[in-house]
Design goal:
The protein is built from 10 helices and 8 strands.
């Protein structure tokens, strides 16, 4: 008998709609898919976030979007402006890319100040922040230091990757991050969790969120293993012409 319920795994998923080639129609269909599968959030390109928040209103799926995506090299003021606008549009969770260049340069003061500023702004508005490390470019010492910075700033999640670097989440990195954060800081995996078995494994490790564009395949298999009926065809709302 399975040791998990459907919601244990579905609510881990941040359904990723960040592919820059997605059309409005594909974004609309992706939002409806996320609602049908009752995921944790839809993480969507910022320009379409307002529409996403409108469609998710009244559901149990949170609207989320990105700050400083995908390379993290934006000026801190730019990231703060992005965060402020998303908050005004109803974004509940912000996935912020840390300044990778600053991390690699050892400019920890900039890194600390930026993370702290974004987290404070979000928390004042009762929003949550996931800080993206992009681990494929970092060594273990840098990853651990980022974990400590995020704990000091009280970020809500530390996140392995954008999904657009040279590599995604690995089990080794997830364990390293889990070992170096303290509650209430949680760990999110992104890039590399591609099937039901991997999803179950990271859930059992203590990872609480997974960014994925393979939501239908993974959760379809979860439903199959639990003996639940499959999700029917997804019917998207008409794409809004002003987005």
């Amino acid at each position: 008998m399975s040791s998990f319920q459907y919601a244990d795994l579905s609510k881990m998923i941040d359904h990723s709609l960040l592919n820059p080639t997605f059309t409005n129609e594909q974004l609309e269909a992706g939002i409806q898919l996320a609602i049908a599968h009752d995921v944790g959030s839809v993480c969507i390109m910022p320009y379409y976030h307002k529409r996403c928040a409108e469609l998710l209103a009244g559901t149990t799926v949170a609207p989320s979007s990105t700050v400083g995506f995908p390379h993290g090299g934006h000026a801190t003021r730019t990231k703060l402006f992005e965060a402020e606008r998303l908050i005004e549009e109803g974004c509940l969770e912000l996935d912020m890319v840390t300044n990778i260049s600053a991390v690699l340069s050892g400019n920890w003061k900039l890194v600390e100040q930026e993370i702290d500023a974004i987290v404070k702004m979000a928390h004042v508005a009762n929003r949550r922040v996931k800080v993206i490390f992009e681990n494929c470019y970092l060594n273990s010492e840098q990853k651990i230091r980022l974990c400590k910075i995020c704990c000091a700033s009280q970020a809500d999640w530390v996140k392995t990757s954008t999904g657009y670097g040279t590599g995604g989440a690995t089990m080794e990195d997830l364990q390293l991050m889990l070992d170096n954060v303290k509650a209430p800081v949680q760990v999110k995996a992104a890039g590399g969790i591609r099937d039901c078995d991997a999803l179950i494994k990271v859930w059992s490790m203590g990872v609480t969120r997974v960014g994925s564009s393979r939501t239908s395949e993974m959760l379809g298999e979860v439903r199959n293993r639990l003996g639940l009926p499959p999700i029917g065809p997804i019917v998207a709302a008409s794409a809004a012409s002003n987005y």
